[in-house]
Amino acid sequence: MAGIEKSPNLIQTVAHLEFPGGPIPIDSPFYIDRSPAEARACAEIGKPGSLIRIKAPRKMGKSSLMLRIINAAVDRGYRTVTVDFQQADEAVFATLDKFLRWLCVNVARQLKLEPNLDEFWDEDMGSKVSCSLYFENYLLEQIDSPVVLVLNEVNRVFERAKIAQEFLPLLRFWYEQARASETWQKLRIAVIHSTEIYIALSLNQSPFNVGLPIKLSEFTAEQVQDLARRHGLNWSDSYPIEQLMQMVGGHPYLVHLALYHLTILQQNRLSIGEELGRAELEELLTAAPTQSGIYSDYLRNQSIAIQQNPELAAAFQQVLDAKNSIHLEPLMAYQLDSMGLVKLEGNNCSLSCELYRLYFQEQNLCEDGFSAVVFEELQQENERLQGLVNVDELTQIGNRRHFDSCLRAEWKHMARDGSPISLILCDIDYFKIYNDTYGHQAGDSCLRSVAQAIRRSLDRPADVAARYGGEEFAVILPQTDAAGALLVAEHVRSKIKALNIVFKPESVECLPNSVVTISLGIASVVPGPDNDAATLVLAADEALYDSKRHGRDRLTMSTLLNFRFAAVN
User: In angstroms, rounded to a whole number, what is the distance separating the alpha carbons of residues 198 and 329?
Assistant: First the structure.
């Protein structure tokens, strides 16, 4: 049909196709460079003592840009640390002292340094001075290269006025210290947030009027066209682009999701000898704002978030009812902007795209009758979606978010009960070579098989298997000592080997096995005041490194937590 042509590269495109949602990997062909913003950000971290401020609504690509900034830093030989405030327990924000100590320990662990907080923390000097001395005289002194500190989801700090009014001026102080101190020039800071700061800070205290500001914009029509082409959709005229952008604007996530589904649909059409036409695009866009459309989960989440805040619901209803842009109370405008629902235009705001108008026009957000039945259904749906959020889509076991949450919870339980907890970190041996040899589809199949074998190796409901990242997996074993963890780890290792996934690359000689194997690192400890969950992870990670260094296809017990070294072939 007119408008959409068959792509000769569709099979290759589908092989690399990724379901939108998380950050776009560094090597992904579907990443759209929104320079000059990206180029400026990556160049700025090369400047001593630099500060970058990245602001954009949720799902606009901040995390993907963050990965590229980190990658640029690594390419320069810099050390990088990422602190995501979404990962902080609520208790972390109880006091400034607890918050800054949490920050310092987090940074030290990622730099693979012992925290040694007590040597630098002085109650008489106060938390902020202690924190600054800790960075200057310990962390930065220990590291020879520049350090890029990425602070993600800083808007969570904004919500705690007392913490924000102390911490944000501290960032400004560090930035200003770099003007005269070589030590502080090693530190380069990237602050990433989705909302405006809505607490009062004087001009000479705020870090938000210094450094390089980066504001991510929506995709242009040319960028949407480019992304469509990368998905194998060779649109011969501007009609499909115009129709898609009329519905969702240039919102990166919404555009990505539409192109993903159209690519899958085109693959299915071509398999039966037909081609994708305008009718399919129009059908997808017609269903888009409905409960059966591709955006249903996303829109339900937005609806739930609005309904939980009556003031926000009332403000958004005003935007829906208005024919033109309107003025809202700043806090409400900032919150709606952070959700991507409105666009700020000076002091006024307007609806972001037609998708929201069509979806919400059937709902009176301020009507009492709406919140009774519908809100309950939305809550139930949200609980289901939260479960999906914790599942790795490819392997169907827990993801990194699930791992972090379970480890924090089990650590607290074991600390209260005085019981041991063990952690196993696993890494598929030579997986990159396997992936390069047999292709991404075989690599994905291998990951799924290994993940399910690990899951089946666990007998107790409390044991947790999760994909830790890439080809790495993790197993949390509550109420399990070192001896028990060794037995479980050996069982896992044997299970993976018994899968008999053939691995005989012709280009590589002397691989230790002809089938896929894994290396494992094990750590076990009784939680107490002298250790934390990060210590357990670090110990297991170093044990995993030892397994790989000593030949792979083996397990190693950590020696960092006062356990005798043990390696089992």
Answer: 11
